[in-house]
Amino acid sequence: NGVVEQTRRHAAIAALLRVPHVVLAVNKMDLVAYEEPVFDRIVRDFATHAAELGLPTFTSIPVSAAAGTFRVGEEVTVLPSGRTTRIAGIDLLGEPVDMAFAPQSVTIRIQDDIDISRGDLIVPAGDAPAITQDIEATVCHVADQPLTAGHRVLLKHGTRTVKAIVKDIPSHPGRLVANDIGRVVVRTAEPLAVDAYADSRRTGAFLLIDPADGTTLAAGMADGSGNVGQG
Known about the structure:
Strand content: 35-45%
Number of helices: 3
Radius of gyration: 22 Å
Helix content: 10-25%
Distance between the termini: 32 Å
Number of strands: 17
């Protein structure tokens, strides 16, 4: 979309605060087939605006978001149910659009009558993450009380919170204490659509929560290797 008003406002604030190093991230390059002239035009437009503001030199980086784009007519899958349908329409601020991408807030209308609950994921049918109840991950333990094998916890993944149990802590002798970073295997009571954190920070991250008082025990980053925690 080029240098939009929000970009201009952010540049003005950066100039006002005398930010010494600025990076211009030109996102969604995949939507224009990575055409270099499009990237160059946006950089030139921003450079003109930056010069007017007295903004220091900036670094330009082309960025492609490999996920989070939907188009009308696209086949999608609802997880964890696995039901498949097509997008019948997309509304943005009450107006119909052909495409939507993260982090826009949109209304998606689907062709079929499918029950979709809070915490479910709508994903491209050909690129759905694995559904699993066994998650292998690296966690950072932040609570004073130790985290031990057999510990019953709540696992918060996105907007969904499910019961879980710590099956194993292979990197430590059965327990993690405050500020430890280690490997854990967690078994959830319900299946979750979990990506590898390396592929998606949003769907690959989770929290382990104490079910007794709601305090955060650990922050986790899911693996994508092997049969455990795959996806």
